[in-house]
Amino acid sequence: MEYINKTKVKYGRVMSCALDGIQGTLVEIEVSLLPGLPHFEIVGLGDCAVRESRNRVYAAIRNSHYDFPQGRLTASYAPAWLRKEGTGFDLALALAILIASGQLKPAEIDCPCCVFGELSLTGRVKPLPGVICRAVACLNQGISQIIIPQDNYYEAVEIEGVNSLAVTNLRDAAEILSCNYLERMQHNNKIPNKIEYLNNKLSISEKGNSLLNDDSLTLLSKLSGQKKALRAMLIAASGWHHSLLLGSAGCGKTTLARTVPLLLPDMDHESARSVTMVHSVAGKLPQGSGLINRRPYESPHHSVTKVAMIGGGTNPKPGLCSLAHKGVLFLDEMTEFTSGVLDCLRQPLEGQFIDISRHNYNVRWPADFLLIGAANPCKCGNYLEPELQCRCTVESVRRHLDRISGPLLDRMDLVVEMRRLSVQDLTGTVNRAISCEPALEARKKVSQSWIKQYERCSNYGLPPMLNGRVDNTNMVKLFEMDDKLLNYAAGFADQLGLSARGYIRVLRLARTISDLDESRLVKKCHVAEALQFRLQKPV
Amino acid sequence: MSMNYNIKKLARAIWYVQLCRSNHVPTLLQHRILRCAGGLDNIYEIDIKQLLERISVFPERCDKCLYRHCSDCCIELSTRENRFVQERSNHFIAEWQRISLRKEAADHALLHQNDHIFPLCVTDHEYPANLGEVRSKPAVIFCSGPDLTAFNQTHLKITVVGTRKPSPYGIKVTELIVEELSPYNVAIISGLARGIDTCAHNTSIKHSCMTIGVTAGSSDIFYPYENKELQTYMSKNSLIVSEHPPGTKPMKQFFPARNRILSGLADIIIVTESPENSGTLITSFFAAEQNRDVYAVPGNILQKTSSGCNRLIIDGAVLLDNPRQIIDDFKLVRESVNNHSFLTDKPKASKEAFSVEEMAILRCLGEQSMDTDVLVQKTGIDVNRLMSSLSILELSGEIICRRGRYFLTYCSN
Question: Domains of chain B (ranges plus CATH)?
């Protein structure tokens, strides 16, 4: 952003930002115009999209009624060792060229400004993925002004401390750069629909972000016969317990899993920001949307590959388990997933993040999802159905469930056995008036139990965590269980032949059940109820 | 010496069985040839061509034939035997004389010399008397176990059969019957299959009662594999019987044939639990054919798991509601000093110990087994309280959960 007014040195410099996972790194874009035959080169480890930007920038500059300078033009992206990808540097490059050729004289203010945006051939500025991540990176680097495409305005505006200046074309951006600080601050008032957007946002937050629309109500009413399963989902949502649903085809496993995001409390600002960042990098953010405030729900088909599940690729992209961050990852037909894909989930289940290491990058994506698996209990699917004859042998039933590896099964706190609804149940659901009362009440219960759990953690000086996340070392202390109860539970576990892990799972569940029950201490009946959700071995 | 003899006999038995099988020799003819030869020991020496000619051309002059033990081979040949002698005997005779087959069998026998398998043919006096009465009995059986005398000396040989996928009720009934009968010097015969069979064997071993397994494959092949331990134990300590030479894997068509040995070995058959269209019913049809008494344990008419048993009772099987009935019917005398009787010692749960909710659950389950959701509907108890009551009942042993449904452990109340 400085113009060195010497006749021989024609040089321009603009800051931009490259992405590495969801972390951003500042990139300095320098352009030097030297005498010689017309030539335009970009150096600094750019990928194809970066090299192609030469053509876009050339056309955009000409079509915005600027002159493209004659001579030998060299653009350098520093740090030069960092791989850069994508189209986000177009706008910065064009501005740097304008500065170098003397057509744009940036205002001499000490407040640095970061620029990102893709250019169309006419000079229009197009939206980008990952703008919110870049904004966060700028904030962390002490840059307080960013020039961004107007379509990305609402996601960047959520980052407080960074002044986002939305532009629609190259001329706009050039104009801002030449303005002084005050003029820049007034720029955003020109953005259309801003008032409407803010009003809309306000009304959403006033409604308590209630996501219970008609669709979800029909969902819940369909399940009114499945008492045990609904109870299980309530517990899963309250304590962040990963669950496995077992049942024949058509017994409502998928429908049940879809209710879980509805039961989860609204995300706080920080969670919403991290969710939006992941979605933004993946390019999954709807155009013109701000922060995501719906809990994500991902249900991949079982043919999903490892990379699609955990992320990766030539240019790092977040996988499904990161897109489901703070929400629900639902694996339908869990036994049909390849074992490699399932076992990849072990790290995120343990640490709530996933590390991807390839030869040219190391990234860490957040992956704090609630895993809900659904599977048929046996090959023919009718193992749990009293009316239908299941021809599977005990051995084949065992083999069927063995497709989910032991370590993964160990992380499933809840196992629910479901069966198809009978005709009476179905008529019951049709006749019953659809009301959102039970759903709203369940949601309220979950929120209350979350508050209780967080309070308990803060009492013991631990970071806030839900019961499903508590590790063994803190458990006995945090769960406020006395020896009598532990002995009682151990007796149960012994009688049922539970493993040590199984025993711990029961304790966790019992704590969540007691939180739902608004009881300070865990009672025997809570342990007894928790036992109903263990995995029963086929006999 | 005896070891050598055993291997020699095993080699001959393997050779004979395989030869007969590959040539489709009718069972009755197999018996005839063995009788003429006077057992397996001299089987290599007989002139099979002459023998076949004699018994086919001059059945009425058989009393003058050269071979010993020829008392019953004078009966006229059946149509199947006739057809065999006329159409396929040439090939059979040629195969009979091939030395290579005998060598192969000897090698085969040597391979299994440590498995303690001893063959018994129809002429051997140890051949189980019950099975001897059966017309379609196997010509040779392969036994593994210490010896047959213990089996022959038992007062009553009982075959206990049932479904492979039993309900808790079926398991309970089987345990109860075997336990009650075990002190009376009986032998419990079963098929070493999953479910009721395994339960019957295990219970009799637990109460040190003689037990015999009849496998569909040979006795050294573990099927189902999860019964490996049980099968190994039984081949060392009691007895496993099979009609196949060692190393034969079970095939689908072997199972019905196995069932005729199951019923043939026994004096009576008890079917503890069987749905309709079950292999168990094949066993009971064989039993009826072989004039064995069939006892069937009745079951809940609302559940399909016992419909086969109920059908048997309709068709004339004896309704078995108390194992004492068998003891009285056969005037069994208690031999072991074990005075424990299951029926008298059955824990009577005091009704006062249960809460109102638990009683309601027990009442509902008394009608029929059901799952949690149906129980919620029937009892009207909240699902969370219901589930904790279910756990408590389950742990106190009153109910049991199978396939997501709850059953009463003692179906009498």
Answer: 2-111 (no CATH), 149-343 (3.40.50.450), 351-408 (1.10.10.10)
